[in-house]
Automatic annotation (TrEMBL):
This is Immunity protein 35 domain-containing protein. It comes from Streptomyces actuosus. It comes from the Bacteria. The lineage of its organism: Bacteria, Bacillati, Actinomycetota, Actinomycetes, Kitasatosporales. Residues 5-75 form the Immunity protein domain. It holds the Pfam family Imm35.
């Protein structure tokens, strides 16, 4: 799967996953990367992404992971944190 297609899956997944009580969320396109066959797609509040002011940052945003071979989309887990902390191409 191409990265652009995987990114579109992540955008749709985020939109579908967003709750009514959350601030508007968006993909952090500057931080998207590939690691171990996964597209790692961080996201945050629209307000934070516009300003990059850390006071606006949501602290518990686990990135969306898209398996580039199978097209599976899900949120990352604590056990997978190394994938986005120390990505391997």
């Amino acid at each position: 799967m191409e990265q652009n297609e995987a990114l579109q899956l992540a955008v749709a997944f985020l939109a579908h996953s967003q709750r009514d009580d959350e601030p508007p969320l968006a993909i952090d396109a500057e931080q998207v990367c590939e690691s171990n066959g996964l597209l790692i797609v961080p996201y945050n509040s629209v307000q934070y992404l516009a300003s990059r002011d850390v006071r606006e940052q949501l602290l518990d945003c686990w990135p969306i992971l898209v398996d580039l071979e199978r097209g599976d989309v899900r949120f990352g887990t604590l056990e997978e944190r190394h994938l986005w902390r120390h990505p391997n191409p």
